[in-house]
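To start, an entry.
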Amino acid sequence: MADRDVGDDRIEILSADDLRKTVTRLASQVLESVPTVESLVLLGIPTRGVQLAGVIASSLKDQSGHAVATGTLDPTFHRDDLGRVGVRMVQATDLPVSVEGRDVVLVDDVVFTGRTVRAALEAIQAWGRPRRVSLLVMVDRGHRELPIQPDFCGRVVPTRRSESIELRLLALDGEEGVFLRRVNENNPE
């Protein structure tokens, strides 16, 4: 699983095949962590976490034979850094079942400062008291500002603050993989 420069100021971190293997591994780890699949709820954090939650749910169903409740949790109004990161179009929170007493897995594509996850933890409390809340991310890129760590992580990729990580999914992007995007310091976008 070697990183590969694919031009366009992008470096491939996970190929499409590596991404599929990683999703399978993460789903297996989630299954091992819960008493029953029926107690499990996946909540994707917009934007890419929502799509990743669907991909993880599909793998969980393949492995367990049972569909997993999957929804969306938008923590935008619980953020403490909106002035710094800006506001995107808010996505409706959609909980397929009550979170009360359930094993909730928050799903996001990348964990960076930890502020999105902190906001999601605050947001979920408005909907009930889960038995347990875990965090699944495809990439941990470091630079944490809060003591938040993923329970399930596809890959740790140390980055510069000026770099970004992109999760690309076939259904949305026409390609699959995880890429590190470098900003050309002589010509920043």
